[in-house]
Amino acid sequence: MTKKYRSKKAVERGTNAAIYIILIIISILWLFPFFYLIIQSLRGESGIATAYFFPKEWTFDNYIKLWTDTKDYNFPKWYGTTLIISLVVTVIQTTIVLITSYALSRLRFKLRKPLMNLMLILGMFPGFMSMTAVYFLLKLFGLTQDMGLVGLILVYVASSCMGYYISKGFFDTIPKSLDEAARIDGANRKTVFFKVILPLAKPIIIYTVLTAFMAPWGEYMFASLMAFGDQSYYNVAVGMKAMLDREVINDYFTRFCAAAVTVSLPITILFMWLQKYYVQGVTGGSVKG
Prior knowledge:
Layout: H1 2-41, H2 61-68, H3 75-106, H4 112-123, H5 131-140, H6 148-158, H7 165-173, H8 176-184, H9 189-197, H10 202-217, H11 221-227, H12 236-242, H13 249-273, H14 275-285
Helix pairs in contact: 1-13, 2-13, 3-6, 3-7, 3-10, 7-14, 8-9, 10-14
């Protein structure tokens, strides 16, 4: 019995070791592009291609020039524009998603099921299918270029309620008896939602905030269409793409790498800090539909 037990433990340890080795290899492959960006952003030599991996000259000039040299590419303005859009979209979209999800989870009304199914089906179609039509509608109302920031915010929050599914699943896991007890004590729907339910829904709130913030932070397709080639209206994704144009890539590649690191760091730090709540929100929202 002991020999059989030892054999079983040996097989288990071998399996675990193999799994860890595979995970380590996958992690290295996943982290390598980010590591490459950091290395190249600290390279003092210009040019896109070098015969060596590690720089011969290490410098922070690429980061300094990124924020101070705005003659050709105004990265600080792009960064500020993107930050404003992302923050506004995060507040509006989080509010809409949470309210919609709670209503679909708790209220029963006619056409509730068909409405939910319709939103799920519409969400399966990629957004770029209607991009041209949406652009001309925004142009008709003067919400491009000078008012492009407002136009982008409207586009990003327009379909917010269709992202209800995960949040609704999380609200379904919160016992309805809490709502009923609060209603018996005289609380209205608003008080129940803000005072009873939301304090218990921190994971899904953080999940919704993170997903709402990340979407416009790195969005390129519609932002490039709205800017219409004018650098004054670029966000960071469109601006960084301009640094990779054939005419300037040799001069700006290392600065592009510095921009990529600068843009990715806030999201990385925020995600790692709130990872526990993010995972709780995803797993909690997938329990019931």
